[in-house]
Amino acid sequence: MGVTWKNSGILILGLILAIFWIAAGQADDIGSLPMPRDKLYVEECGACHTAYAPGFLPARSWVRMMGELERHFGEDASLDEPQSLAIQRYLTDLAADSQNGTPFMRRLAASVPARAAPQRITETWFFAYMHDEVPASFWTRKKIGTKANCIACHPRANAGSYAEREVSIPPP
Amino acid sequence: MRNWIERSSVLLAALMALPALADTPAQILDNLTREARSQQASFSPSAGRGEQFYQAKQTGGGEAESCAACHTRDAKAAGQHVRTHKNIEPLAPVANRERFSDPAKVEKWFRRNCKEVLGRTCTPQEKADFAAYVISIR
Question: What is the ipTM of this complex?
Answer without folding.
Answer: 0.76
